[in-house]
């Protein structure tokens, strides 16, 4: 798994690319604070090598809790900036700091 951040000089946003190796998965989405935990519109595209990838424009100078939704199961990002306990979910979420 991996996250790539590209800050734009012309706008207060960061292009964040999420990469998830999941050859056997049918559907992968990234859900979090930035999209109200809704997988609609945040589905990652499956590449020929079995990796799922997607880029999103997120406002910078923010912190977001997020997880991947892989075929209906929540998975944390191994390379997250940090992790934070979430009482509602009863588990730790990955945190993205921009």
Describe this structure in words.
The protein is mostly beta strands and 98 residues long. It has one domain (2-97): Immunoglobulin-like (Sandwich). It is built from no helices and 9 strands. The strands form 2 sheets. Strands 3, 6, 7, 8 and 9 form a 5-stranded antiparallel sheet that branches. It has a 4-stranded antiparallel sheet with strand order 1-2-5-4, with no helix packed on it. The two termini are 18 Å apart. The model has no long low-confidence stretch (mean pLDDT 94). One of its GO terms (molecular function) is starch binding. InterPro entries: AMPK1_CBM, CBM20, Ig-like_fold, Ig_E-set. Keywords: Kinase, Transferase. This is AMP-activated protein kinase-like protein.
Biggest β-sheet: count, sense, barrel?
5 strands, antiparallel
| Fraction of helical residues | under 10%
User: What's the CATH H-level superfamily name?
Assistant: Immunoglobulins
CATH topology (fold) name: Immunoglobulin-like
- The N- to C-terminal Cα distance equals 18 Å
User: What is the residue-mean pLDDT, rounded to a whole number?
Assistant: 94
**What would you call the shape?**
globular
> Nearest-angstrom radius of gyration?
13 Å
Structural class estimated from helices and strands? mainly beta
Total domain units: 1
CATH class group: Mainly Beta
CATH architecture: Sandwich
Weakly predicted, low-confidence segments? none
GO molecular function: kinase activity; starch binding
Pfam families: AMPK1_CBM
Protein name: AMP-activated protein kinase-like protein
InterPro entries: AMPK1_CBM (IPR032640), CBM20 (IPR002044), Ig-like_fold (IPR013783), Ig_E-set (IPR014756)
């Amino acid at each position: 798994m991996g996250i790539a951040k590209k800050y734009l000089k012309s706008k207060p946003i960061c292009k964040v690319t999420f990469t998830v190796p999941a050859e056997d998965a049918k559907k992968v989405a990234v859900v979090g604070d930035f999209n109200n935990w809704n997988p609609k519109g945040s589905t990652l595209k499956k590449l020929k090598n079995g990796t799922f990838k997607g880029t999103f424009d997120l406002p910078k100078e923010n912190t977001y809790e997020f997880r991947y939704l892989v075929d209906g199961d929540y998975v944390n990002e191994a390379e997250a900036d940090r992790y934070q306990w979430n009482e509602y979910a009863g588990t730790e979420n990955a945190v993205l700091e921009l």
